[in-house]
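Researcher: Final request for today, and then I'll write up notes for the group meeting. The sequence and the SMILES for S-adenosylmethionine follow.
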Amino acid sequence: METAYPRIKQLTPGPRHSLSGGLKDWQAPPLRLGETERLRFRNMIYDYPQYYEVAFSFRDIPKEAAFLRACIDRHSKIDVSWVFEVGCGFAPHAEELIKAGYRYLGLDKNRNMLDYAVSKWRHLEPRPDFIEGDMIAFQTPRPVDFAFVMLGSLYLNTREEMNSHFDSLARVLRPGGLYFLDWCVQFDDPMKYADNNSVTFERDGISVASRFNIRLTDPTEQMYEEIWTLDVNDRGRRRTLQMTERNRAIAPRDFLDFVRNRSDFEFVGWWRDWNLDQPITDTAEITRPVALLRRR
Ligand SMILES: C[S@@+](CC[C@H](N)C(=O)[O-])C[C@H]1O[C@@H](n2cnc3c(N)ncnc32)[C@H](O)[C@@H]1O
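Model: Predicted protein-S-adenosylmethionine complex:
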């Protein structure tokens, strides 16, 4: 049966993206219920991309982008022009990938994230493209040659959603192209990170303390709930943001079975420590495992 797709909403820089003084002009949207109030709201933190960016500033983005290139060089069966990020957020890797010669396309469902991305990267040439949509079922304005998803951002909670996502991707990813998945397969117990996971990062006068509270909600379906709290000190202005996400942990065996049951993707491999010389062969201490699939 044909899936009904939402219309593509492609974002191009418009008046709201033409911030005269660059990013310093970007204002966090006002909190809806007062500054110190704790809010439980899906997507709440993603509504504040600048704080999200500080919270995840621990990553070595040039190194990660170089790793994506290495995966392409070593494992892609096609030449890559367009790279496509699923759940792109503010598109942290866009600049490095464009500098490396790729065209960049990002998909996200959060409009604030997309607005921030369009504004942040509007100086790049060629300019990155963004589309607003849901990763469960999507289309892109053009075929892509490489797809990737970072930080376990596969928000697919049922097998139907997984299949729908891969059906969409199979339609847009050219045969021979790779799908790179960062931290989407759970080699260890997600509850391992339940305690003592508070970290603080600071950038441009904004300090963000981030902590996760993780709770298994349905062991049979491997569903867990992550309550993510950010305590922000934005140049003296304090606010607490919180959001709850429900995720399904994908165990290695389930992932392999899922891929083998599809005729359109093949498993290429998985690695620890973002190192192509370190294939995963056991489950001892794996931080941010990465996996590669290839479109047949
Ligand atoms: C953890 S962030 C990752 C952002 C970016 N890829 C990065 O590496 O920083 C997850 C992103 O996925 C987006 N997202 C969540 N559910 C989504 C969905 N169903 N479809 C598309 N994007 C989604 C959020 O809005 C958010 O920007």
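Model: The mean pLDDT is 86. The CA atoms of residues 121 and 162 lie 30 Å apart.
Researcher: Thanks, that's everything.
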